C-alpha cells in the first residue's frame, strides 16, 4: 500500500470517529517451535552432542554444550558476554541502586540454607508427638501397603553441595531470552490452557526446604548418551560423595510433578543445561510386602550347620532395643544409694585416664538399693609432681666450677626462680633424704635432696635441666598415674575407700551411672584386706564385625555388628561360656538396595535380637546406643587392637556418628587431633576406650596364653582351645552369592553371631581376664596395660613399688631409649651370616650335643627357676653389687657381694613371690578345696611363677628403665659356672652328659630299667642340691629313647607317670616339624618317621618302613587323595608387604597383596596362610604367583590343586632327609627315589663349619647329562657377513642342526645360503668367549635373601655378609654370592667346545626325553659324515676354546693346599 493510500485511510477513520488501533487485526504468527515427539527430540539432542562442541583451551574446565533447549529463564549461574560487560559498568542513580538491592534480596532468598528454617530466630515449632510402638507398627504396615500398590511422585532432587563438580555451560542463548514473548499456540476452547505458567521455583513454596541455588542440578528424564561429552566427563571423574539433605523415600518409580494446571504439557528435561545429578537411591526399610530379592533367586548351597548348631545352643536371654532419645542424665544413680554408713564410698577401680592434670578413675560401686554393681567415675584433683634436686658441692657459673659452697637455701632460691619463669605460683619446697642405686654415674648412694611439689596442670621441667646449684633432677617425666599409685601403694585393680567425695562437682562428664570429684587425694585409700574381698561382677561384651569393601573410596565399610553380652560375669566362676546366660544382638544394614523378601519375618523368629537398619550411619548410631544401654566393662575381640577397633572408630569419625564417644566411658566433644597420624594414632584410639578394658585374643598376651597356635587365626583358636570347628568365609563372595536369599543371609548373620560367641568363649576358657588381673595386682600397674601384653612394664612397676617403699629414687622413664645406638657388628674374623650379631653380653651355656640315636634311658635334670634362684643365692641386686668402676660396654663381670652384705631388695622380692607361690600350692592340695577355689588358686600360682621368672628380664632388657648390664652379666656368668660344675659332678659319678642347655643337662644312664635310672637321678640330685643353699635341681623328664640332632633340636619318647604306670609320649623340640612354615602334611610325615626311628626296632626294619611310607605318601599326593588343607603353609611377615624389594618371589608377600586387593588389613607380623598351586616348574617366582589363600583354594569351584612337585621338593624331602641323616641304610638318593623324584639330581655334601645345620643338595658332576649341565648356558649366535642374518648354532652333534654342509657352515637364510668363512666363525667365537669372561670379572654379587636381593659390585669387608639394601652393612643377614661364578664360566666354555667336537657327532640319544623323533637316526648318520668331512675346520674352532680352557684354573686340583697338613 502506497503512502498516499495509507494517509487517505487514516483520514477516513478520523472522520468516522475511529482510530487505527480499533480496526487493527493481529496476524497469527506462524509456528515458532518445531513440534516433535519424544523420540524425535532425543535424536535432535544426540545429533547436537555428536558435534562434540567443546570450547577451545578451556583448561580442562569441561564447559560443553549439552544440546538441550533453554525453556526457562529463571535458572541462575550463567551469564553471557553482553551481560557481563553491562554488569561490569558502574551503575548510577537511585533506580540502579534500588535494582541492586532487589537483586541482592532475591539472591539471599534463593541462597538460604536449611539451617535458617530451624534457627532460634524462627518461631518455636510445636512439640513433636511421641509415637508408641503399636502406632509405629501400624503406620509401617500401612505405608508398606501404600508403597507397594500406589506409585508416588518423584521427589525433587535435594541440593548437592560439592566443590569438585564440573559444570557445563550453555553455548547458545536460551529460548526464553531470544523469544521472550513467544508462546506455543493453544486452542482457545481448551480447559487446560493457561496464559502464564507459574515458574518452577513457586512450586514448593510450602516446602520448608530452600530453593535450588546456583550449584543445584535439575533431574533429567533421559540418561546422558554414552558418546556425549557429558558422559565422557563423568567417566573422567567419578561422582564424589553427596550429602543428602532429606531422606529420599523414592521407591524406584518416577512420576512427574504437576505444576499449575494438570493439563499443561511439561517436558522433563534438563532446562538449565547442567550436568544431571545421579539419582541417590537409599535402601528403604523393608516390609514383607515391599521387599524384593537381590541377586539370584537360587544361591549355591553352603553348609551352615556347624555355626548354626553353636548359636542354637546358646543360653540367650532377651535383649531389648535401646532408647535412642535417652537423655544424658537419665539412668544416673542417686549417691545416697552407694554411700556407706560412715559416709565413705567403696569403689573397685578398673581403669584410668589423665585429663588436664587430673586423674580420672573408672570403676564399679554397689547400688545398695538393688544389690547390683554400676559404673562409677571419680575425678581426682590436686595430685602433685614430686621432683628431687641433687645439690652441687660447689656453685657452677657459666659452665665453670667456683669455690663457693652450695647451701640448701641456695638451691631453694634457684628453684623458686625456675618456678617463677614457668609461671608456677603454687609450689612447695622442702629438704628430703633419699637413696640411689642405679646406673647413672656420679650419683651418691645416699644424699640430701631438695623436694619440689607442684601441680600436674603446669608444664613439666626438662629431664636434663641443670642449674648453678644442682646437678641432676629426678622425677620430671613421672606420669600422673605412676605418681598416684606409688604414693597410695595401689597394687592394680582393687577396692578403694573414698571419703569427702563431692557428688555435685561433676555432671555428665562421663557415661557412668555415678560421678564424683575428690579435691584431696589423701581422701582415697586402699580398703583394708582388699585382697580377700572378691572383685565385683563385670559386664563383658564380645563383638564381631562384618565389613564390605568400597572399591570406589578404597575403604572398609561396616555391614554388620554382632555382640554377646555377659552380665554379672564373675572372674572366679569356671562355668563355660555356653552355659552362661547372655544377651545377643546384631545390628545390620542391607548389602545393596534392600533385604531379601521375607528376611524381616525370619529375624523375628530368632532368639537373639536382630535390628535392621537402612544405612551404615543408622547402624553405628544404634551400636553406640547399645553400648550406653549395656555399659560393658570389658570389650573382647579377635584382632581388636589393630583391625576391628580401628575400623569402628574410623567409620564413626567419617560418618560423624552422634554419641561416638560412648565407645569409652568419658564424654568427649571432639576427636583427638592425632587420630590417623602414624604411631600416635594407636595410643589415641586406646585413650578413646578409657573406662572400658580392651581384651584382644590376638595380641601379645593372648598369644602367650595360646602357645600351640601358629597363625593365631580365630578358626585355629577355636580348634585348639574350644575343640570346635569354625569355618572361614569369603565375605565378598558370600554377599554376592548364597547370602542373597533370606535363608542364606540368616546363615551369614548367624556366622557373625557365632564368632562373637567364640571370641567370648576363648577368653573365658583361657582365663584371660582372671590371669591378667592377678598379674596386675602383683605388679601394681594398670589392668588395661597388662591386657595389651606389656610384660616389661609389669616388671618395672613391681620394682618401682618396692624401691619407692624403701625411699629410693627410681630411674626416670626414657622414651625411645636405645634407638639411637649404633648397631653391633660382627667382630674381626667373623663372616657374614655365619657370625651372628654380637650379643650385648654372654647368655646361657649350651654344650655341644653328642649327636645320635640313644636307646637307653636318658635323664633330664633341670634347675628350678635358675636365674631367679641365682639372684637369691648370690644376693645380686642394684643395692648390693658394686659396679661404679664399670662402664656400660665393659665386658668385665662384677664381683659377687660378700656374705656380710645385707639382703638386697631384688632377692627379697623374688623370695617373697616364691614363698607366696608355695603357700598357694599348699592350699591347692587341701582335700577341702572346692573346684572354684582350686581354679582361683591355680591362676594365682601361675601369675606368681610368671612374675618371679620374668624378674631377671628387666636387668638385660636395654629399653627398661631398670636395665643393668653388669647385673645381667653376673647372673648369666654364675649360670654358666653352675652348669659346668654340674657336668663335672656327673662325670665324677661315671655318668655321661650328652647335652646341656642353660639350666638343664641330659644324662645317659646306660640302663634299660626305669627304676634304676630314677635311682641314679635321685642320688645325683642330692649331691647337687647339697652344694647350694637355694638352688635346686630335679628330674624333669625321663626319655626312653632320644634322637639328638643338634643344639636345641631333638626328638624323644618321654615317660609320663599316670597314677602307678608310665605311658610313652613323643616330645619334639626345635625340629622342622615345629616350624610354622612347614605344612601339616610335612609335619605329619616327620612325626610318623620319628615314631619309626624311636620304635626300638632293628635299623633294617625301620629303614624299610620309612621307605614304604614315603612311597605311599608320594602316591597319595599325586592322586590328590590327601585333604587339601594339609598343604597349608604359614609364614609371618617381617614387615609390610610393600617394603619387600623382591616380593615377587615370596609366596607370603604375594598372598598378602591379594588380600590387600580385596580390602583386607595386612601389616607386619601378620601370619599368612596359603597353598602353592599349579605347576611352578622349580621357579621361585612361579611358586609365589601360584600361592593363594587357603579359603580360595578350598572352594569347590576354584579348580586350584596343590603343586605336588613343589611340596615334595620343598616340604617333604628336606625335613625327611635331615631326620634320617643319623641312621645308616638310607641316604638322600634313596629317599628321593621313594618320593618319585629324579635321583640324579641329589647328593649329600656336608658344609664345613660347626654352626652349619643345613645340608646342601646338588647333583654329581659325573652323572649330569649335557642337557642339564648346559641348561643355563648362553647359545652361540653366528652372523652371516653377506646378509647379516644372526642365527643360533646348536652344534654338530644336534639333530636339529641344518647349517652344516660339505664346505663348512652355511647361512640358514633361504635367499642367501652363503658359506661362512672359518676365519669369521673363529672371530665370532673368540668374541663370545671374551664376553663370558668379562661377565665373570665384572664381579657382580647378589644377596641370597629374597627379602633383600641386593645386587652390587661392592665387596663387604666381612666377607660374604650382605651390605643391605642401603649399603650400610645392616638390615640384612643374607649371604652375597656371585651372579656369574667360576663354575658358570667353566660350563660355558665346555658348552662352546662341545659345539665343534667331532667325536661327539652322532652320539646324541635318539629323541628328546626318551621320546624318539622320526628320522633321527638318518640325521645323526648324515651329521657324522659331515663332521668328518669338516674335521679340520671344526678342530680349529674347538682348539680356540681349548686354549681358554687350559687357562682356566678349575681343571686343576691344588695339592699343596689339600695336603698342607702333611707339610708341617
Automatic annotation (TrEMBL):
<dbReference type="InterPro" id="IPR038256">
    <property type="entry name" value="Pol_alpha_znc_sf"/>
</dbReference>
<feature type="compositionally biased region" description="Acidic residues">
    <location>
        <begin position="203"/>
        <end position="219"/>
    </location>
</feature>
<dbReference type="Pfam" id="PF08996">
    <property type="entry name" value="zf-DNA_Pol"/>
</dbReference>
<keyword id="KW-0479">Metal-binding</keyword>
<dbReference type="GO" id="GO:0005658">
    <property type="term" value="C:alpha DNA polymerase:primase complex"/>
</dbReference>
<dbReference type="InterPro" id="IPR006134">
    <property type="entry name" value="DNA-dir_DNA_pol_B_multi_dom"/>
</dbReference>
<dbReference type="Pfam" id="PF03104">
    <property type="entry name" value="DNA_pol_B_exo1"/>
</dbReference>
<dbReference type="InterPro" id="IPR015088">
    <property type="entry name" value="Znf_DNA-dir_DNA_pol_B_alpha"/>
</dbReference>
<dbReference type="InterPro" id="IPR036397">
    <property type="entry name" value="RNaseH_sf"/>
</dbReference>
<keyword id="KW-0808">Transferase</keyword>
<dbReference type="GO" id="GO:1902975">
    <property type="term" value="P:mitotic DNA replication initiation"/>
</dbReference>
<dbReference type="GO" id="GO:0003688">
    <property type="term" value="F:DNA replication origin binding"/>
</dbReference>
<feature type="compositionally biased region" description="Low complexity">
    <location>
        <begin position="115"/>
        <end position="129"/>
    </location>
</feature>
<keyword id="KW-0238">DNA-binding</keyword>
<comment type="similarity">
    <text>Belongs to the DNA polymerase type-B family.</text>
</comment>
<feature type="region of interest" description="Disordered">
    <location>
        <begin position="149"/>
        <end position="237"/>
    </location>
</feature>
<dbReference type="InterPro" id="IPR043502">
    <property type="entry name" value="DNA/RNA_pol_sf"/>
</dbReference>
<keyword id="KW-0235">DNA replication</keyword>
<keyword id="KW-0239">DNA-directed DNA polymerase</keyword>
<dbReference type="InterPro" id="IPR042087">
    <property type="entry name" value="DNA_pol_B_thumb"/>
</dbReference>
<keyword id="KW-0548">Nucleotidyltransferase</keyword>
<dbReference type="InterPro" id="IPR006133">
    <property type="entry name" value="DNA-dir_DNA_pol_B_exonuc"/>
</dbReference>
<dbReference type="InterPro" id="IPR045846">
    <property type="entry name" value="POLBc_alpha"/>
</dbReference>
<dbReference type="InterPro" id="IPR024647">
    <property type="entry name" value="DNA_pol_a_cat_su_N"/>
</dbReference>
<dbReference type="InterPro" id="IPR023211">
    <property type="entry name" value="DNA_pol_palm_dom_sf"/>
</dbReference>
<dbReference type="GO" id="GO:0003887">
    <property type="term" value="F:DNA-directed DNA polymerase activity"/>
</dbReference>
<dbReference type="GO" id="GO:0008270">
    <property type="term" value="F:zinc ion binding"/>
</dbReference>
<dbReference type="GO" id="GO:0006281">
    <property type="term" value="P:DNA repair"/>
</dbReference>
<dbReference type="InterPro" id="IPR013087">
    <property type="entry name" value="Znf_C2H2_type"/>
</dbReference>
<keyword id="KW-0539">Nucleus</keyword>
<dbReference type="GO" id="GO:0000166">
    <property type="term" value="F:nucleotide binding"/>
</dbReference>
<dbReference type="GO" id="GO:0003697">
    <property type="term" value="F:single-stranded DNA binding"/>
</dbReference>
<keyword id="KW-0863">Zinc-finger</keyword>
<dbReference type="InterPro" id="IPR017964">
    <property type="entry name" value="DNA-dir_DNA_pol_B_CS"/>
</dbReference>
<keyword id="KW-0862">Zinc</keyword>
<feature type="region of interest" description="Disordered">
    <location>
        <begin position="57"/>
        <end position="131"/>
    </location>
</feature>
<dbReference type="GO" id="GO:0006272">
    <property type="term" value="P:leading strand elongation"/>
</dbReference>
<dbReference type="GO" id="GO:0003682">
    <property type="term" value="F:chromatin binding"/>
</dbReference>
<dbReference type="Pfam" id="PF12254">
    <property type="entry name" value="DNA_pol_alpha_N"/>
</dbReference>
<dbReference type="GO" id="GO:0006273">
    <property type="term" value="P:lagging strand elongation"/>
</dbReference>
<feature type="domain" description="C2H2-type">
    <location>
        <begin position="1280"/>
        <end position="1302"/>
    </location>
</feature>
<protein>
    <recommendedName>
        <fullName>DNA polymerase</fullName>
        <ecNumber>2.7.7.7</ecNumber>
    </recommendedName>
</protein>
Amino acid at each position: 500500500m502506497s503512502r498516499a493510500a495509507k494517509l487517505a485511510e487514516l483520514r477516513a477513520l478520523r472522520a468516522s470517529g475511529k482510530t487505527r488501533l480499533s480496526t487493527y487485526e493481529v496476524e497469527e504468527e506462524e509456528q515458532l517451535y518445531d513440534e516433535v515427539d519424544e523420540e524425535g527430540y532425543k535424536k535432535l539432542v544426540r545429533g547436537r552432542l555428536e558435534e562434540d562442541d567443546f570450547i577451545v583451551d578451556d583448561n580442562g574446565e569441561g564447559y560443553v554444550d549439552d544440546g538441550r533447549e533453554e525453556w526457562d529463564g529463571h535458572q541462575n549461574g550463567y551469564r553471557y558476554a553482553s551481560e557481563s560487560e553491562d554488569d561490569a559498568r558502574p551503575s548510577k542513580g537511585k533506580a540502579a541502586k534500588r535494582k541492586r538491592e532487589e537483586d541482592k534480596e532475591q539472591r539471599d532468598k534463593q541462597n538460604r540454607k536449611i539451617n535458617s528454617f530451624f534457627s532460634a530466630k524462627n518461631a518455636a515449632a510445636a512439640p513433636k508427638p511421641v509415637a508408641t510402638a503399636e502406632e509405629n507398627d501400624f503406620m509401617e504396615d500401612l505405608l508398606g501397603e501404600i508403597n507397594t500398590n500406589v506409585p508416588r511422585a518423584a521427589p525433587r532432587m535435594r541440593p548437592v553441595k560439592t566443590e569438585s563438580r564440573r559444570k557445563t555451560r550453555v553455548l547458545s542463548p536460551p529460548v526464553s531470552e531470544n523469544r521472550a514473548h513467544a508462546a506455543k499456540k493453544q486452542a482457545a476452547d481448551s480447559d487446560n490452557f493457561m496464559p502464564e505458567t507459574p515458574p518452577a521455583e513457586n512450586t514448593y513454596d510450602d516446602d520448608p526446604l530452600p530453593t535450588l541455588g546456583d550449584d543445584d542440578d535439575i533431574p533429567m528424564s533421559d540418561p546422558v548418551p554414552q558418546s556425549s561429552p557429558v558422559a565422557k566427563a563423568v567417566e573422567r571423574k567419578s561422582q564424589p560423595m553427596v550429602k543428602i539433605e532429606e531422606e529420599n523415600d523414592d521407591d524406584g518409580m518416577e512420576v512427574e510433578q504437576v505444576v499449575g494446571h494438570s493439563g499443561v504439557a511439561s517436558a522433563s528435561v534438563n532446562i538449565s543445561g547442567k550436568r544431571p545429578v545421579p539419582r541417590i537411591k537409599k535402601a528403604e526399610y523393608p516390609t514383607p510386602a515391599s521387599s524384593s530379592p537381590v541377586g539370584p533367586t537360587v544361591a549355591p548351597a553352603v553348609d551352615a550347620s556347624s555355626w548354626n548348631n553353636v548359636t542354637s545352643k546358646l543360653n540367650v536371654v532377651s535383649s531389648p532395643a535401646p532408647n535412642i532419645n535417652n537423655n544424658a542424665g537419665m539412668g544416673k544413680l542417686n549417691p545416697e544409694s552407694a554411700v556407706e554408713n560412715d559416709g565413705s564410698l567403696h569403689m573397685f577401680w578398673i581403669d584410668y585416664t589423665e585429663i588436664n592434670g587430673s586423674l580420672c578413675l573408672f570403676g564399679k560401686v554397689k547400688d545398695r538399693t538393688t544389690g547390683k554393681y554400676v559404673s562409677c567415675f571419680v575425678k581426682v584433683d590436686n595430685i602433685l609432681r614430686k621432683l628431687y634436686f641433687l645439690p652441687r658441692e660447689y656453685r657452677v657459673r657459666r659452665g665453670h666450677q667456683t669455690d663457693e659452697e652450695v647451701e640448701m637455701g641456695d638451691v631453694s632460691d634457684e628453684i623458686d626462680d625456675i618456678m617463677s619463669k614457668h609461671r608456677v605460683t603454687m609450689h612447695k619446697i622442702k629438704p628430703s633424704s633419699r637413696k640411689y642405686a642405679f646406673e647413672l654415674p656420679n650419683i651418691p648412694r645416699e644424699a640430701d635432696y631438695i623436694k619440689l611439689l607442684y601441680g600436674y596442670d603446669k608444664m613439666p621441667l626438662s629431664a636434663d635441666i641443670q642449674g648453678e646449684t644442682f646437678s641432676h633432677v629426678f622425677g620430671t617425666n613421672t606420669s600422673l598415674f605412676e605418681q598416684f599409685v606409688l604414693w597410695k601403694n595401689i597394687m592394680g585393680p582393687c577396692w578403694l575407700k573414698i571419703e569427702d567425695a563431692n557428688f555435685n562437682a561433676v555432671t555428665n562428664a562421663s557415661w557412668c551411672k555415678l560421678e564424683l570429684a575428690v579435691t584431696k587425694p589423701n581422701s582415697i585409700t586402699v580398703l583394708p584386706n582388699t585382697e580377700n574381698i572378691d572383685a565385683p561382677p563385670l559386664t563383658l561384651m564380645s563383638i564381631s564385625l562384618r565389613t564390605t569393601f568400597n572399591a570406589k573410596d578404597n575403604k572398609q565399610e561396616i555391614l554388620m555388628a554382632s555382640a554377646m553380652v555377659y552380665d554379672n560375669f564373675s572372674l572366679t566362676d569356671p562355668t563355660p561360656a555356653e552355659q552362661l546366660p547372655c544377651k545377643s544382638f546384631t545390628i545390620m544394614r542391607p548389602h545393596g538396595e534392600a533385604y531379601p523378601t521375607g528376611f524381616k519375618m525370619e529375624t523375628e523368629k530368632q532368639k537373639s535380637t536382630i535390628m535392621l537398619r537402612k544405612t551404615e550411619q543408622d547402624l553405628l548410631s544404634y551400636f553406640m546406643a547399645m553400648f550406653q544401654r549395656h555399659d560393658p566393662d570389658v570389650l573382647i575381640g579377635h584382632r581388636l587392637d589393630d583391625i576391628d577397633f580401628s575400623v569402628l572408630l574410623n567409620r564413626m569419625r567419617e560418618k560423624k556418628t552422634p554419641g561416638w564417644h560412648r565407645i569409652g566411658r568419658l564424654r568427649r566433644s571432639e576427636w583427638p587431633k592425632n587420630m590417623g597420624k602414624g604411631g600416635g594414632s594407636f595410643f589415641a584410639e586406646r585413650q578413646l576406650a578409657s573406662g572400658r578394658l580392651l581384651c584382644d585374643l590376638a595380641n601379645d598376651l593372648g598369644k602367650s596364653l595360646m602357645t600351640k597356635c601358629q597363625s593365631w587365626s580365630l578358626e585355629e583358636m577355636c580348634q585348639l582351645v574350644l575343640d570346635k570347628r569354625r569355618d572361614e568365609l569369603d565375605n565378598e563372595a558370600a554377599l554376592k552369592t548364597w547370602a542373597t536369599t533370606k535363608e542364606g543371609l540368616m546363615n551369614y548373620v548367624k556366622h557373625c553371631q557365632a564368632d562373637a560367641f567364640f571370641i567370648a568363649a576363648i577368653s573365658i576358657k583361657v582365663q584371660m581376664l582372671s590371669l591378667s588381673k592377678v598379674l596386675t595386682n602383683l605388679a601394681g600397674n594398670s589392668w588395661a596395660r597388662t591386657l595389651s601384653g606389656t610384660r616389661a612394664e609389669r616388671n618395672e612397676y613391681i620394682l618401682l613399688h618396692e624401691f619407692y617403699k624403701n625411699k629410693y629414687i627410681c630411674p626416670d622413664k626414657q622414651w625411645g631409649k636405645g634407638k639411637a645406638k649404633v648397631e653391633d657388628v660382627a667382630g674381626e674374623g667373623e663372616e657374614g651370616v655365619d657370625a651372628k650379631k654380637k650379643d650385648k653380653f654372654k647368655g646361657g651355656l649350651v654344650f655341644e650335643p653328642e649327636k645320635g640315636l640313644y636307646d637307653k634311658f636318658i635323664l633330664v635334670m633341670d634347675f628350678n627357676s635358675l636365674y631367679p634362684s641365682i639372684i637369691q643365692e648370690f644376693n645380686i641386686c642394684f643395692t648390693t653389687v658394686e659396679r661404679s668402676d664399670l662402664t656400660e660396654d665393659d665386658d668385665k663381670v662384677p664381683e659377687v657381694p660378700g656374705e656380710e652384705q645385707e639382703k638386697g631388695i631384688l632377692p627379697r622380692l623374688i623370695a617373697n613371690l616364691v614363698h607366696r607361690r608355695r603357700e598357694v600350692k599348699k592350699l591347692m592340695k587341701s582335700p577341702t578345696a572346692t573346684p572354684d577355689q582350686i581354679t582361683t588358686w591355680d591362676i594365682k600360682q601361675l601369675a606368681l611363677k610368671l612374675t618371679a621368672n620374668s624378674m631377671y628380664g628387666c636387668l638385660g632388657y636395654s629399653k627398661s628403665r631398670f636395665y643393668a648390664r653388669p647385673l645381667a652379666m653376673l647372673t648369666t656368668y654364675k649360670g654358666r659356672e653352675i652348669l659346668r660344675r654340674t657336668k663335672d659332678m656327673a662325670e665324677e659319678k661315671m655318668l655321661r652328659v650328652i647335652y646341656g642347655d642353660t639350666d638343664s643337662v641330659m644324662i645317659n644312664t646306660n640302663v634299660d630299667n626305669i627304676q634304676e635310672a630314677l635311682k641314679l637321678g635321685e642320688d645325683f640330685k642330692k649331691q647337687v642340691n647339697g652344694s647350694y643353699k637355694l638352688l635346686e635341681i630335679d628330674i624333669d623328664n625321663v626319655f626312653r629313647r632320644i634322637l639328638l640332632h643338634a643344639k636345641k633340636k631333638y626328638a624323644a619318647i618321654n615317660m609320663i607317670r599316670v597314677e602307678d604306670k608310665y605311658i610313652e609320649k613323643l616330645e619334639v623340640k626345635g625340629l622342622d616339624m615345629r616350624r610354622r612354615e612347614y605344612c601339616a602334611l610335612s609335619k605329619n610325615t616327620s612325626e610318623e618317621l620319628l615314631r619309626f626311628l624311636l620304635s626300638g626296632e632293628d635299623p633294617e626294619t625301620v629303614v624299610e618302613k620309612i621307605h614304604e611310607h614315603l612311597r605311599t605318601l608320594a602316591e597319595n599326593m599325586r592322586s590328590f587323595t590327601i585333604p587339601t588343607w594339609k598343604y597349608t603353609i604359614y609364614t609371618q611377615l617381617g614387615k609390610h608387604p610393600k617394603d619387600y624389594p623382591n616380593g615377587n618371589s615370596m609366596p607370603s608377600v604375594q598372598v598378602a597383596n591379594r588380600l590387600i586387593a580385596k580390602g583386607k588389613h595386612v601389616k607386619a607380623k601378620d601370619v599368612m596362610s596359603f597353598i602353592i598351586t599349579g605347576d611352578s616348574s622349580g621357579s621361585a617366582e612361579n611358586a609365589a604367583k601360584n600361592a593363594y589363600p587357603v579359603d580360595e583354594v578350598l572352594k569347590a569351584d576354584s579348580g586350584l590343586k596343590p603343586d605336588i612337585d613343589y611340596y615334595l621338593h620343598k616340604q617333604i624331602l628336606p625335613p625327611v632327609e635331615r631326620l634320617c641323616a643319623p641312621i645308616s641304610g638310607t641316604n638322600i638318593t634313596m629317599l628321593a627315589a621313594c618320593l618319585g623324584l629324579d635321583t640324579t639330581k641329589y647328593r649329600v655334601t656336608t658344609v664345613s663349619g660347626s654352626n652349619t645345620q643345613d645340608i646342601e643338595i646338588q647333583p654329581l658332576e659325573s652323572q649330569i647329562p649335557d642337557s642339564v649341565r648346559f641348561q643355563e648356558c648362553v647359545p652361540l649366535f653366528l652372523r652371516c657377513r653377506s646378509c647379516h642374518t644372526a642365527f643360533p648354532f646348536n652344534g654338530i652333534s644336534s639333530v636339529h642342526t641344518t647349517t652344516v654342509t660339505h664346505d663348512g657352515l652355511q647361512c640358514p637364510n633361504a635367499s642367501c645360503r652363503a658359506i661362512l668363512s672359518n676365519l669369521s666363525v673363529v672371530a665370532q667365537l673368540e668374541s663370545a668367549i671374551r664376553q663370558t669372561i668379562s661377565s665373570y670379572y665384572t664381579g657382580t654379587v647378589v644377596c641370597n635373601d629374597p627379602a633383600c636381593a641386593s645386587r652390587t659390585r661392592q665387596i663387604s669387608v666381612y666377607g660374604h655378609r650382605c651390605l643391605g639394601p642401603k649399603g650400610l652393612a645392616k638390615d640384612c643377614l643374607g649371604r652375597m654370592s656371585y651372579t656369574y661364578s667360576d663354575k658358570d664360566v667353566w660350563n660355558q666354555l665346555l658348552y662352546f667346545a662341545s659345539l665343534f667336537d667331532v667325536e661327539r657327532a652322532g652320539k646324541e640319544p635318539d629323541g628328546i626325553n626318551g621320546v624318539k623323533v622320526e628320522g633321527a637316526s638318518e640325521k645323526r648318520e648324515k651329521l657324522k659324515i659331515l663332521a668328518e668331512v669338516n674335521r679340520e675346520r671344526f678342530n680349529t674352532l674347538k682348539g680356540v676354546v681349548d686354549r681358554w680352557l687350559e687357562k682356566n684354573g678349575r681343571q686343576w686340583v691344588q695339592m699343596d693346599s689339600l695336603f698342607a697338613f702333611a707339610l708341617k
